[in-house]
Design brief:
Blueprint (H helix, E strand, L loop, with lengths): L13 E2 L8 H9 L10 E8 L7 E9 L11 H4 L2 E3 L2 E5 L5 E4 L1 H14 L7 H14 L11 E10 L11 E11 L9 E5 L17 H16 L4 E6 L5 E5 L3 E6 L3 E4 L10 H12 L3 E4 L4 H10 L2 E8 L3 E10 L2 E3 L8 H14 L10 E3 L2
Parallel strand pairs: 1-3, 9-10, 9-16, 13-14
Antiparallel strand pairs: 2-3, 2-8, 4-7, 5-6, 5-7, 6-18, 7-8, 10-11, 12-13, 12-15, 15-16, 16-17
Bound molecules: pyridoxal-5'-phosphate and 2-OXO-4-methylpentanoic acid (COI).
Length: 372
């Protein structure tokens, strides 16, 4: 048996009930206005790992238990060196009451890739999916039913060894928490974006393609600047590649050209390969659009909007789904919103994607996995 093969399966998840679950009245209040990331469900899924190196070791104690704080020694390595990775995916309730996950294996695979970059052990794909399934099943009453709502799932892994030396951890905790979610931006209107010219989120050879907490820590200061300027998100560009557009703090970017071509920044190793991005590429191609993954600079963005060649610009990600982008602003300049920025291609792709996720449109790609 390979050392990295799963040592656990679904049947090995034990359950400890939360003895003080949220009351039906309080839950109804929460689900009526869930916001994003504010309220957590009654349980968590956990799996622990120990081993001499991230390539081997053993996964054990897979369990569902009551939601609660973690107790960590102050010398726990994640608190000092940020050895952590996470994921984001959603569960949806369909009209017939059934519950479905969107492409959980893709998240599990990306979680492995992120773990590899951070010298953490690679959780087997089926164990990741089982943990998510078990938690969603347990807390399925927390899935909101309103338009645009879902149960947001946040799997993460932290280095839990008590050790101050700088080397990969010998102990890790994998956990999944869940939180009912509505529209991430709180508005369907196009959002203005702040260009953080003086900051990079990731560099060549760095951790930009991994989903690790440190990347988000690096985005917080420019994100604060963005909010001070009235923008909902910050965009990162690469000054060493003619200000090539990379991505937003938590989303990928697409440009819709008036000739029916969609352009999205290619994967250079400094941006996250979004699962929504991959799905949008597949959907757009199916709908007859040409999709090109290539370098696109801020200058091309400006010229394209001015000439009308760029008709729509949108951002996409699990939390934000598909969101039209408005103006690009920076300290002493601005690119106006593309003429058709709330336009038909953005809307078509959003409707198709959310239609599949919520069961209103046929899932011809086999993207959904049933939980309940
Ligand atoms: N880019 C960043 C930096 C993100 O945090 C996210 C969100 O997870 C994305 C892109 C989009 O990825 P996905 O579509 O898998 O959610
Ligand atoms: C997600 O979309 O799942 C993310 O992790 C992005 C973050 C902005 C919430």
């Amino acid at each position: 048996m390979l050392e990295t093969e799963p040592t656990l399966s679904t049947s090995t998840f034990t359950t400890t009930e939360n003895q003080e679950p949220t009351t039906p009245e309080r839950l109804a209040e929460i689900l009526a206005a869930p916001g994003f990331g504010e309220f957590m469900t009654d349980h968590v899924a956990k799996v622990e790992w120990s081993g001499e190196s991230p390539d081997g070791g053993e996964w054990r104690d897979a369990r569902i238990e009551p939601y609660g704080p973690l107790s960590l020694d102050p010398a726990t390595s994640v608190l000092h060196y940020g050895q952590e990775v996470f994921e984001g995916l959603k569960a949806y309730r369909h009209q017939d009451g059934s519950v479905w996950l969107f492409r959980p294996e893709a998240n599990a695979q990306r979680f492995q890739k992120s773990a590899r970059r951070l010298a953490l052990p690679e959780l087997p794909v089926d164990l990741f999916v089982d943990a998510v399934r078990n938690l969603v099943e347990k807390d399925s009453r927390w899935i909101p039913e309103g338009e645009g709502t879902s149960l947001y799932l946040r799997p993460f892994m932290i280095a839990t060894e008590k050790f101050l030396g700088v080397r990969p951890t010998h102990e890790a905790l994998f956990e999944v928490i869940a939180s009912p979610a509505a529209n991430y931006f709180g508005t369907p209107e196009p959002v203005d974006i702040w260009w953080a010219r003086d900051y990079a989120r990731a560099g060549e050879g760095g951790t930009g393609a991994a989903k690790c907490g440190g990347n988000y820590a690096a985005s917080l200061l420019p994100q604060t600047e963005a909010e001070e300027k009235g923008c909902k998100q910050v965009i990162f560009t690469d000054p060493h590649r003619d200000n090539a557009v990379e991505e937003l703090g938590g989303m990928n970017v697409f440009f819709v050209f008036s000739d029916g071509t969609l352009v999205t920044p290619e994967l250079t190793g400094t941006i996250l390969e979004g699962i929504t991005r991959t799905s949008i590429i597949q959907l757009a191609e199916e709908q007859g659009y040409r999709v090109v993954e290539r370098k696109i600079t801020v200058d091309e963005w400006r010229d394209g909007v001015e000439s009308g060649e760029i008709a729509e610009v949108f951002a996409c990600g699990t939390a934000a789904v598909v969101a039209p982008m408005g103006r690009l602003l920076w300290e002493d300049g601005e690119i106006p919103a593309a003429k058709n920025t709330n336009g038909e291609v953005t809307e078509l792709l959003r409707t198709q994607l959310t239609g599949i996720q919520t069961g209103r449109v046929e899932d011809r790609f086999g993207w959904l996995t049933r939980v309940v």
